[in-house]
Write a structure and sequence with these properties.
By secondary structure, the chain is mainly alpha-helical. It contains 14 helices and 5 strands. Strand 1, helix 1 and strand 2 form a beta-alpha-beta unit. Helix 4 packs across helix 8, helix 4 packs parallel to helix 14 and helix 8 crosses helix 9. It is elongated, with a radius of gyration of 22 Å.
Length: about 325
């Protein structure tokens, strides 16, 4: 097998089906910013994936540009990491076809995301929805990535990518490394929703999610509606989950001494939730506002956006071409 780049390769992608939120930042983006200094990174906007569930493409361009601008505003450097659109790398579709010959109907039908999405869109159970894991595997294997930062909901797909790589290598010869989940050796950060029932989401539960594009008034409004109760009846009362959520958010965006002050107030039975939520709102505004304003300025500079996307596509395309030359030779479909 041809030696890959000197630095280990990291690949990850995000669907442009909604705008980024606080969970996107703490669960993924802050690690991406760290990774670009130590690894060869390919960060993709998965516009082809979005077609499996969102066939109406009227808002696709705006969503793609929004995601890329927020990636850049959060600290990704297009001179170090490749930021690109999935559809700009045509080799993706070719590898997707080859991997589909290694994917079996039974295993594809058993994937949790297929079953969930089939329930949500029973009138649109298309072939691409079924073979979503093959396309995700193609995205990863195209760069012969060793590490893939994924959330819990994508671990099954990553395991399938490992299986497809192993099957290809067994059938045609060693071409692909088997990719591994990667999170800097730490537990993945799960940012809770403001309603106390789950995590923040790009498309669901929008009133309980803080988006990186929310304005100051909306941030305040959402946080002041966060679920609380009458407060502890006595010192050292165990903290309910929905109160723990508020404290977790305060720890993510606030100063440690402020967190300790309110934690002490809770432990001593004198917490004032109104004050706590006002503090959290101001901390979140201080955190989100610079990202929101920088992302908008980046989107307004169309020539810069085009330059970033073309540069990323060129780097990702060069990597894809190297891989596909090896793949075609291994399969035996390169005749001269």
């Amino acid at each position: 097998m041809e030696k890959s780049a000197k630095k280990p390769v990291v690949m990850s992608g995000i669907r442009p089906t909604g705008i980024l939120h606080l969970g996107s930042y703490f669960g993924a983006l802050q690690n991406y910013v760290r990774m670009q200094n130590e690894y060869e990174c390919y960060f993709m906007v998965a516009d082809l994936h979005s077609l499996t569930t969102h066939p109406d493409t009227k808002s696709l361009r705006a969503n793609v540009l929004h995601v890329i601008s927020e990636y850049l505003a959060c600290g990704l450097d297009p001179n170090r990491a490749a930021l690109y659109c999935q559809s700009a790398v045509y080799e993706t579709s070719e590898l997707y076809l080859y991997l589909n010959t290694l994917a079996y109907k039974g295993e594809l039908e058993k994937t949790t995301t297929f079953k969930d999405k089939a329930r949500l869109q029973p009138q649109n159970i298309n072939a691409a929805l079924l073979t979503y894991p093959s396309l995700m595997a193609a995205d990863i294997l195209l760069h012969r990535a060793l590490y893939v930062p994924v959330g819990k909901d994508q671990e099954q797909h990553l395991e399938m990518a490992r299986n497809f790589a192993s099957r290809f290598n067994h059938r045609y010869g060693e071409i692909f490394p088997e990719p591994e989940a990667f999170n800097f050796g730490q537990e993945l950060v799960k940012v809770p929703g403001l309603d106390g029932t789950g995590k923040m989401s790009k498309s669901e539960n929008q009133n309980a999610t803080l988006y990186l594009s929310d304005d100051d008034d909306l941030i305040r409004k959402k946080i002041m509606k966060a679920k609380t109760d009458e407060g502890p009846k006595a010192p050292d009362t165990p903290m309910p989950g929905y109160i723990e959520n508020i404290f977790q958010l305060l720890a993510l965006a606030g100063a440690p001494d402020v967190y300790e002050k309110y934690k002490s107030d809770y432990d001593n039975g004198v917490i004032r939730y109104g004050d706590l939520k006002k503090q959290l709102a101001e901390d979140m505004i201080r955190f989100i506002t610079p990202i929101r304003e920088k992302a908008k300025a980046i989107r307004d500079d169309e020539s810069y956006m085009r330059e970033v996307m073309e540069k990323g596509a060129a780097k990702a395309g060069a990597s894809a071409k190297r891989t596909m030359q090896l793949v075609r030779e291994a399969i035996g479909i390169k005749y001269f």
